[in-house]
Amino acid sequence: MAQGLDAQAIRRGLDTRVVGRALEVHALIDSTNARAVAQARAGAPEGLVVLAEEQTAGRGRLGRRWYAPRGSALLMSLLFRPPLAPMEAQRITMVCSLAVVRAVMEVCELEARIKWPNDIVLADAKLGGLLTELGSTGGVLDYVVVGIGLNVNVDVAQIPELMAPATSLSAEWGRPVSRPDLLIAFLQHADDLYLRLQGGWSPRVAWRDALTTLGREVVVGTPEETLQGVAEDVDDDGALLVRTGDGALRRVMAGDVTLRGHYPGRDSTA
Ligand code: BTN
Fold it and tell me: For 138, left (φ over 0), alpha (ψ -120 to 50), or beta?
Protein backbone atom coordinates (compact mmCIF):
# COMPACT_ATOMS: atom_id res chain seq x y z
CA MET A 1 0.00 0.00 0.00
CA ALA A 2 1.54 3.32 -1.08
CA GLN A 3 2.21 5.85 1.68
CA GLY A 4 -0.10 8.86 1.16
CA LEU A 5 0.99 12.47 1.39
CA ASP A 6 -0.20 14.12 4.59
CA ALA A 7 0.03 17.92 4.70
CA GLN A 8 0.50 18.13 8.47
CA ALA A 9 3.23 15.49 8.55
CA ILE A 10 5.05 17.20 5.68
CA ARG A 11 4.87 20.58 7.43
CA ARG A 12 6.22 19.00 10.62
CA GLY A 13 9.16 17.57 8.68
CA LEU A 14 10.08 20.91 7.11
CA ASP A 15 12.53 23.49 8.33
CA THR A 16 12.31 26.05 5.52
CA ARG A 17 12.06 29.82 5.30
CA VAL A 18 10.08 30.28 2.07
CA VAL A 19 9.24 27.02 0.31
CA GLY A 20 6.28 25.25 1.93
CA ARG A 21 5.04 28.28 3.91
CA ALA A 22 1.64 27.18 2.67
CA LEU A 23 0.96 23.69 1.48
CA GLU A 24 -2.06 22.07 -0.16
CA VAL A 25 -2.50 18.34 -0.78
CA HIS A 26 -5.26 17.35 -3.21
CA ALA A 27 -6.46 13.79 -3.67
CA LEU A 28 -7.61 14.66 -7.18
CA ILE A 29 -7.13 17.83 -9.19
CA ASP A 30 -7.04 18.84 -12.83
CA SER A 31 -3.48 20.18 -12.68
CA THR A 32 -1.37 21.40 -9.77
CA ASN A 33 0.09 24.01 -12.12
CA ALA A 34 -3.37 25.31 -13.01
CA ARG A 35 -4.20 25.54 -9.28
CA ALA A 36 -0.92 27.27 -8.38
CA VAL A 37 -1.29 29.78 -11.25
CA ALA A 38 -4.85 30.54 -10.09
CA GLN A 39 -3.60 31.02 -6.54
CA ALA A 40 -0.77 33.24 -7.79
CA ARG A 41 -3.20 35.42 -9.71
CA ALA A 42 -5.40 35.62 -6.60
CA GLY A 43 -2.45 37.03 -4.64
CA ALA A 44 -1.12 33.96 -2.75
CA PRO A 45 2.31 34.59 -1.22
CA GLU A 46 5.42 32.88 -2.56
CA GLY A 47 6.37 29.56 -1.06
CA LEU A 48 2.99 27.93 -1.72
CA VAL A 49 3.32 24.24 -2.63
CA VAL A 50 0.40 22.49 -4.33
CA LEU A 51 0.56 18.68 -4.29
CA ALA A 52 -1.76 16.08 -5.78
CA GLU A 53 -2.07 12.32 -5.63
CA GLU A 54 -3.66 12.32 -9.07
CA GLN A 55 -4.24 14.78 -11.93
CA THR A 56 -6.91 14.60 -14.59
CA ALA A 57 -5.25 17.14 -16.90
CA GLY A 58 -1.56 17.18 -15.97
CA ARG A 59 0.29 19.61 -18.20
CA GLY A 60 3.61 18.77 -19.85
CA ARG A 61 5.98 20.92 -21.86
CA LEU A 62 5.20 21.92 -25.43
CA GLY A 63 1.48 21.38 -24.97
CA ARG A 64 1.88 17.71 -24.03
CA ARG A 65 0.01 15.90 -21.26
CA TRP A 66 1.59 14.45 -18.14
CA TYR A 67 0.39 11.06 -16.92
CA ALA A 68 1.01 9.32 -13.60
CA PRO A 69 -0.96 6.58 -11.84
CA ARG A 70 -2.62 7.71 -8.59
CA GLY A 71 -0.45 7.82 -5.48
CA SER A 72 2.75 6.70 -7.16
CA ALA A 73 4.48 9.91 -8.25
CA LEU A 74 5.34 13.30 -6.85
CA LEU A 75 3.11 15.82 -8.63
CA MET A 76 3.54 19.35 -7.37
CA SER A 77 3.78 23.02 -8.20
CA LEU A 78 5.75 25.67 -6.34
CA LEU A 79 4.96 29.38 -6.38
CA PHE A 80 7.78 31.94 -6.36
CA ARG A 81 7.76 35.71 -6.64
CA PRO A 82 11.43 36.49 -7.33
CA PRO A 83 12.63 40.02 -8.06
CA LEU A 84 13.82 38.98 -11.52
CA ALA A 85 13.10 39.90 -15.12
CA PRO A 86 11.05 37.40 -17.17
CA MET A 87 14.19 36.45 -19.14
CA GLU A 88 15.76 35.32 -15.87
CA ALA A 89 12.87 33.08 -14.80
CA GLN A 90 14.70 29.91 -15.88
CA ARG A 91 17.00 30.47 -12.88
CA ILE A 92 14.10 29.42 -10.67
CA THR A 93 13.56 26.28 -12.74
CA MET A 94 17.31 25.58 -12.51
CA VAL A 95 17.14 25.81 -8.72
CA CYS A 96 14.21 23.37 -8.67
CA SER A 97 15.78 20.81 -10.99
CA LEU A 98 18.99 20.93 -8.96
CA ALA A 99 16.93 20.38 -5.81
CA VAL A 100 15.36 17.29 -7.41
CA VAL A 101 18.76 15.86 -8.31
CA ARG A 102 20.08 16.50 -4.79
CA ALA A 103 17.01 14.99 -3.10
CA VAL A 104 17.24 11.86 -5.26
CA MET A 105 20.91 11.47 -4.32
CA GLU A 106 20.15 12.03 -0.63
CA VAL A 107 17.26 9.59 -0.38
CA CYS A 108 18.12 6.91 -2.97
CA GLU A 109 21.84 7.45 -3.64
CA LEU A 110 21.07 7.53 -7.34
CA GLU A 111 22.74 10.05 -9.64
CA ALA A 112 19.87 11.63 -11.53
CA ARG A 113 20.88 14.20 -14.11
CA ILE A 114 19.24 17.04 -15.99
CA LYS A 115 18.61 16.89 -19.70
CA TRP A 116 18.42 20.44 -21.01
CA PRO A 117 16.23 22.24 -20.45
CA ASN A 118 13.87 20.64 -17.94
CA ASP A 119 13.97 16.85 -17.93
CA ILE A 120 15.23 14.73 -15.07
CA VAL A 121 16.87 11.56 -16.37
CA LEU A 122 18.53 8.42 -15.08
CA ALA A 123 20.73 6.56 -17.57
CA ASP A 124 19.11 8.60 -20.36
CA ALA A 125 15.58 7.45 -19.50
CA LYS A 126 13.13 10.09 -18.31
CA LEU A 127 12.47 10.11 -14.57
CA GLY A 128 10.59 13.39 -14.43
CA GLY A 129 10.12 16.82 -15.87
CA LEU A 130 9.53 20.43 -14.96
CA LEU A 131 7.06 22.85 -16.47
CA THR A 132 7.38 26.53 -15.59
CA GLU A 133 4.57 29.01 -16.12
CA LEU A 134 4.98 32.68 -15.36
CA GLY A 135 3.16 35.97 -15.24
CA SER A 136 4.72 39.40 -15.67
CA THR A 137 3.77 43.05 -15.82
CA GLY A 138 5.89 45.78 -17.35
CA GLY A 139 9.04 43.68 -17.62
CA VAL A 140 8.87 42.42 -14.02
CA LEU A 141 7.86 38.94 -12.93
CA ASP A 142 4.62 38.72 -10.94
CA TYR A 143 4.96 35.01 -10.31
CA VAL A 144 6.80 31.89 -11.38
CA VAL A 145 5.07 28.54 -10.96
CA VAL A 146 7.37 25.54 -11.30
CA GLY A 147 5.49 22.28 -11.82
CA ILE A 148 7.33 19.03 -11.21
CA GLY A 149 6.32 15.50 -12.06
CA LEU A 150 8.63 12.77 -10.75
CA ASN A 151 8.15 9.05 -11.32
CA VAL A 152 8.76 7.70 -7.84
CA ASN A 153 7.02 4.32 -7.42
CA VAL A 154 5.59 4.33 -10.91
CA ASP A 155 5.43 1.21 -13.03
CA VAL A 156 6.11 2.93 -16.33
CA ALA A 157 4.59 -0.01 -18.20
CA GLN A 158 1.26 1.28 -16.85
CA ILE A 159 1.59 4.50 -18.87
CA PRO A 160 1.11 3.63 -22.55
CA GLU A 161 0.97 7.32 -23.46
CA LEU A 162 4.72 7.82 -22.79
CA MET A 163 6.54 9.23 -25.78
CA ALA A 164 10.10 8.55 -24.68
CA PRO A 165 12.08 5.92 -22.75
CA ALA A 166 11.00 6.42 -19.14
CA THR A 167 11.92 5.05 -15.76
CA SER A 168 11.09 5.49 -12.09
CA LEU A 169 13.06 5.66 -8.86
CA SER A 170 11.65 2.38 -7.56
CA ALA A 171 12.61 0.63 -10.82
CA GLU A 172 16.18 1.94 -10.60
CA TRP A 173 16.54 1.49 -6.84
CA GLY A 174 14.92 -1.94 -6.76
CA ARG A 175 12.52 -1.12 -3.92
CA PRO A 176 9.75 1.36 -3.12
CA VAL A 177 10.79 4.90 -2.25
CA SER A 178 9.17 6.95 0.55
CA ARG A 179 7.47 9.85 -1.23
CA PRO A 180 7.24 11.94 1.98
CA ASP A 181 10.99 11.55 2.63
CA LEU A 182 11.81 12.47 -0.96
CA LEU A 183 9.40 15.40 -0.92
CA ILE A 184 10.78 16.83 2.31
CA ALA A 185 14.37 16.47 1.05
CA PHE A 186 13.37 18.21 -2.18
CA LEU A 187 11.59 21.10 -0.46
CA GLN A 188 14.56 21.64 1.88
CA HIS A 189 16.98 21.81 -1.05
CA ALA A 190 14.65 24.04 -3.06
CA ASP A 191 14.39 26.46 -0.13
CA ASP A 192 18.13 26.46 0.47
CA LEU A 193 18.97 27.09 -3.20
CA TYR A 194 16.25 29.71 -3.61
CA LEU A 195 17.58 31.66 -0.62
CA ARG A 196 21.08 31.46 -2.10
CA LEU A 197 19.76 32.74 -5.41
CA GLN A 198 18.14 35.65 -3.63
CA GLY A 199 21.51 36.37 -2.05
CA GLY A 200 23.10 36.77 -5.50
CA TRP A 201 24.35 33.21 -6.12
CA SER A 202 24.17 31.89 -9.69
CA PRO A 203 23.07 28.26 -10.10
CA ARG A 204 24.88 28.05 -13.45
CA VAL A 205 27.97 26.04 -12.46
CA ALA A 206 26.11 23.54 -10.27
CA TRP A 207 23.41 23.17 -12.92
CA ARG A 208 25.96 22.75 -15.70
CA ASP A 209 27.65 19.98 -13.70
CA ALA A 210 24.31 18.18 -13.37
CA LEU A 211 23.50 18.38 -17.09
CA THR A 212 23.75 15.28 -19.24
CA THR A 213 23.56 17.33 -22.42
CA LEU A 214 26.96 19.06 -22.60
CA GLY A 215 29.73 17.75 -24.82
CA ARG A 216 27.22 15.78 -26.85
CA GLU A 217 25.94 16.20 -30.37
CA VAL A 218 22.43 17.51 -30.26
CA VAL A 219 19.57 18.33 -32.53
CA VAL A 220 17.57 21.18 -31.00
CA GLY A 221 14.06 21.95 -32.17
CA THR A 222 13.19 25.54 -31.33
CA PRO A 223 9.95 27.34 -32.17
CA GLU A 224 11.80 28.97 -35.09
CA GLU A 225 14.17 26.32 -36.48
CA THR A 226 16.04 23.05 -36.01
CA LEU A 227 19.70 23.36 -35.04
CA GLN A 228 22.37 20.68 -35.09
CA GLY A 229 25.75 20.86 -33.36
CA VAL A 230 27.63 20.21 -30.15
CA ALA A 231 26.12 21.45 -26.87
CA GLU A 232 29.08 23.34 -25.40
CA ASP A 233 27.81 25.23 -22.38
CA VAL A 234 24.94 27.04 -20.69
CA ASP A 235 24.78 30.64 -19.51
CA ASP A 236 23.46 32.23 -16.30
CA ASP A 237 19.91 32.23 -17.66
CA GLY A 238 20.03 28.55 -18.57
CA ALA A 239 20.30 29.10 -22.32
CA LEU A 240 22.08 26.33 -24.23
CA LEU A 241 25.14 27.32 -26.26
CA VAL A 242 25.42 25.13 -29.35
CA ARG A 243 28.44 25.06 -31.69
CA THR A 244 27.03 24.45 -35.15
CA GLY A 245 28.83 22.97 -38.16
CA ASP A 246 29.77 26.42 -39.51
CA GLY A 247 31.67 27.19 -36.26
CA ALA A 248 29.08 29.65 -34.91
CA LEU A 249 28.02 29.53 -31.25
CA ARG A 250 24.24 29.74 -31.09
CA ARG A 251 22.28 30.62 -27.96
CA VAL A 252 19.06 28.65 -27.52
CA MET A 253 16.64 29.69 -24.80
CA ALA A 254 13.84 27.20 -25.39
CA GLY A 255 13.51 24.00 -27.33
CA ASP A 256 13.46 20.26 -27.35
CA VAL A 257 16.71 18.31 -27.55
CA THR A 258 17.53 15.01 -29.18
CA LEU A 259 20.83 13.70 -27.85
CA ARG A 260 23.35 12.09 -30.16
CA GLY A 261 26.81 10.62 -29.59
CA HIS A 262 28.48 9.02 -26.55
CA TYR A 263 25.69 6.45 -26.50
CA PRO A 264 25.83 4.89 -29.97
CA GLY A 265 22.56 3.44 -31.12
CA ARG A 266 20.57 5.06 -28.32
CA ASP A 267 19.17 8.40 -29.33
CA SER A 268 16.47 9.71 -27.06
CA THR A 269 13.89 12.41 -27.24
CA ALA A 270 12.09 13.40 -24.06
C1 BTN B 1 7.49 17.78 -18.99
O2 BTN B 1 6.81 17.88 -20.02
O3 BTN B 1 8.46 17.05 -18.94
C4 BTN B 1 7.09 18.57 -17.78
C5 BTN B 1 6.04 17.84 -17.02
C6 BTN B 1 5.58 18.55 -15.77
C7 BTN B 1 4.46 17.78 -15.11
C8 BTN B 1 4.10 18.32 -13.77
S9 BTN B 1 3.09 17.20 -12.86
C10 BTN B 1 2.81 18.42 -11.66
C11 BTN B 1 2.67 19.75 -12.37
N12 BTN B 1 1.29 19.99 -12.75
C13 BTN B 1 1.11 19.93 -14.05
O14 BTN B 1 0.01 20.06 -14.63
N15 BTN B 1 2.27 19.71 -14.68
C16 BTN B 1 3.36 19.64 -13.74
Answer: left
What is the atom index within ligand 1 of the atom nearest the CA of 58? 14
Q: Which residue segments constitute the domains of the chain, with CATH numbers given? A: 7-209 (3.30.930.10), 213-259 (2.30.30.100)
Nearest-angstrom CA–CA distance, 97 and 120: 7
Given ligand 1 and candidates 118, 148, 256, which is best to mutate, with the most ligand atoms within 8 Å of its CB?
148
Q: How many residues does the chain have?
A: 270
Ligand 1 centroid to 59 CA: how many Å? 5
Look up the pTM and report it. 0.94
| Ligand 1 atom 15, closest CA | 59
Does ligand 1 have an atom closer than 6 angstroms to the CB of 32?
yes
Cα 12 to its chain centre, rounded Å, is 24
Nearest atom in ligand 1 to the alpha carbon of residue 270 is: 3
Mutate to test the pocket of ligand 1, among 26, 33, 97 (most ligand atoms within 8 A of CB): 33
How far is 211 from 219, CA to CA, in rounded Å? 16
- Indicate whether residue 31 lines ligand 1 (CB < 6 A): yes
Sorting pLDDT into bands at 50, 70 and 90, what band is 270? very low
CA distances from 26 to 42, 151, 164 (A): 19, 18, 28
Question: Per residue in 41-98, pLDDT tens?
Answer: 999 999 999 999 999 999 999 889 999 999 999 999 999 999 999 999 999 999 999 9
